[in-house]
């Protein structure tokens, strides 16, 4: 994979979202260098810390290459032009879930990032865009995006290069992990699900989900 420039680094702060509930789902791009810590980008926070944030969900990437897919699904929605519309911290084109594997490591500026899990979609996506059916489309297509944990803290800015420096540390792409654990219609095997449950590179929440699925499959 060739090194890929990052179009924008984006952060969000909690703001009223629905019925007075706070959310930092919507992200806006930052000018200049941004510090990347083990908890994520400086200036980026989460209103719901029980389900979001933490070291295994420090930095989120939702591929910009999915814009064409969403244009077909929801039409010419102006939000699709915004780099942080899907809650992403890194606006990157030319890279998707089938191109990367769980555990792959990337250098961005002086920081070192490691893929830790897919992103599970929730109602906030549909509320933000004002379109029903987006969560189902993500689950069916595995256009989920993913999270990084931060192995080495550092600093980065727009137009810096996202470069893979370690690969194939597991046997599964992000698309496969998501499909086999999150989509009940996707084919998998008990052996693969148990292997994901035992994989320390997968975040604890998703390992727990894999264990539950293995038990349901009779493992």
TrEMBL record:
SUPFAM superfamilies: PK beta-barrel domain-like. It holds the Pfam family MOSC. This is MOSC domain-containing protein. Residues 28-165 form the MOSC domain. Coiled coil: none annotated. InterPro entries: Benzoxazolinone_Detox_Enz, MoCF_Sase_C, Pyrv_Knase-like_insert_dom_sf.
């Amino acid at each position: 994979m060739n090194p890929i420039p990052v179009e924008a680094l984006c952060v969000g702060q909690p703001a009223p979202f629905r019925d007075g509930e706070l959310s930092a789902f919507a992200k806006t791009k930052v000018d200049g260098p941004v510090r990347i810590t083990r908890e994520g980008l400086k200036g980026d926070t989460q209103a719901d810390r029980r389900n979001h944030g933490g070291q295994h969900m420090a930095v989120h990437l939702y591929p910009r290459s999915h814009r064409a897919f969403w244009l077909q699904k929801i039409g010419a929605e102006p939000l699709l032009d915004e780099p942080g519309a899907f809650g992403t911290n890194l606006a990157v084109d030319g890279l998707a879930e089938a191109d990367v594997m769980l555990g792959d490591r990337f250098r961005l500026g002086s920081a070192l990032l490691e893929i830790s899990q897919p992103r599970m979609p929730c109602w906030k996506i549909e509320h933000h865009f004002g379109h029903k059916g987006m969560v189902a489309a993500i689950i069916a297509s595995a256009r989920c995006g993913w999270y990084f944990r931060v192995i080495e803290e550092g600093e980065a800015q727009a137009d810096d290069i996202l470069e893979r420096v370690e690969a194939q540390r597991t046997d599964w792409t992000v698309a496969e992990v998501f499909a086999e654990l999150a989509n009940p219609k996707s084919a998998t095997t008990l052996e693969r699900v148990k292997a994901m449950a035992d994989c320390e590179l997968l975040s604890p929440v998703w390992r727990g989900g894999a264990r539950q699925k293995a038990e349901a499959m009779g493992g």
